[in-house]
What we know:
This protein is of the alpha+beta class.
Amino acid sequence: MKLLLLLVLVAVAQCRVFRAPLRRGKSLRQSLQEHGLLEHYLKQHPYNPATKYFATRASTEPLQNYLDNEYFGTISIGSPAQEFTVVFDTGSSNLWVPSVYCSSPACTNHNRFNPAESSTFISTNDSLEIAYGTGSMTGILGYDTVTVADIEVLNQIFGLAETEPGDFFYYVPFDGILGLAFPSIASSGATPVFDNMMKEGLVAQDLFSVYLSKNGQSGSFVLFGAIDPFYTTNGITWIPLSAETYWQITMDSVSIGEEAVACSLGCQAIVDTGTSLLAMPNRALGPILSTLGASSNGEISCEAVSSLPDIVFYINGQAFPVPPSAYVVESNGYCILGFQGMNIPTESGELWILGDVFIREYYVIFNRANNMVGLSPLP
């Protein structure tokens, strides 16, 4: 979401009014029950108080895959419910949607929240301002009932956008953003949605997990309060967080083939569902492009893709490969690497962003109970 390929931006611009409907998500229990599979599954996976996997407090939010570039689902706000599509973003912490107070073109092109039509809305005088890697918003804060999947969060604070300057949010096929990072980086001190879910005991476990599909296919989801064992058959590697801000971890090194090409002395990275690409420090991008035989803007011969090596991220002593099928984007006969150079300094050095290009290769578990990220190679 924050870092976009030029060719994908063009595609989004051409499809500026595309906003496919998406129904509010059902819980895992509801989905299995509708297909007559619940009884069998309960026999195969009996309820275990230690894991609480099948507690009714585990709920699935399906995500729509838009061009392998953005993943968004539907939530509702207010009484009666007003529906919005939002990106579930582990790289930010605020929930906001456009409001009727906003006259920016980006707002008028999307669903807008009307507080006058909600009997449970509570206004505040507090303001909100957020700048992303691409796009920004300003607005005010309010409280209302927010429903995510089948989880109803009462008195959730959220932003009502009053301005969305520029073109970026005009062209995107979603309305707003639901941040899933830590309260420490929430603008205006707003409590994130998942923190309220945990505080109110609305999830079985203090974690959520994410699966992002490839090639525009369906099936992507965020699972709140549980880990789906279907996606962890290859085991889970647990990685401790290095900071409780973003979902930030320490990487050991980055290699291509047997050669370490970057991060040789260790570096910091965040696992970010809201970033489309793999973002890295500018000084690391050049050597990686050169090693792969790409031009300075990331273009590469499509004929060469089949012979490209994996890029391997070493994290917590384990290797996490990303194959060329994941990091090369092909469109209309042109191929480009899904990398972006940018400098984001931290106390421990420059930051890498493991965005959707990386996440599509792994089932990712974001564990707030133990402040860890779990990675399981997808089958």
